[in-house]
């Protein structure tokens, strides 16, 4: 997603069982227990049980998840690594 067209990061959850997020630029991994997303607010790890990505539209920056959501954890480390990779790629063009 281009930074000029990125939606703000927003989350809405219903009873810890369904969630909709905007401002998502990539899904790095997902399984029944963990979903790792890159958002405009940093890396987001969702942990729980029987997790499922029910809708994914990266063009719009939207993701919907279902399952038992136990925790949401933000980290800036992924954002820093992405910037580092971009800098290295520009240096070696």
From TrEMBL:
What is any one GO biological process for this UniProt entry? sporulation resulting in formation of a cellular spore
Per the record, the domain of life is Bacteria
This chain's protein is named Sporulation protein YabP
């Amino acid at each position: 997603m281009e930074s000029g067209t990125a939606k703000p990061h927003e989350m809405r959850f219903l009873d810890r069982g369904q969630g909709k997020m905007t401002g998502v630029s990539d899904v790095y991994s997902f399984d029944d227990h963990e979903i790792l997303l890159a958002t405009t607010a940093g890396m987001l790890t969702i942990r729980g049980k029987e997790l499922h990505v029910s809708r994914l539209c990266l063009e719009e920056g939207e993701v919907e998840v279902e399952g038992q959501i136990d925790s949401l954890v933000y980290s800036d480390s992924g954002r820093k690594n992405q910037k580092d990779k971009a800098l290295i790629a520009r240096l070696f063009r």
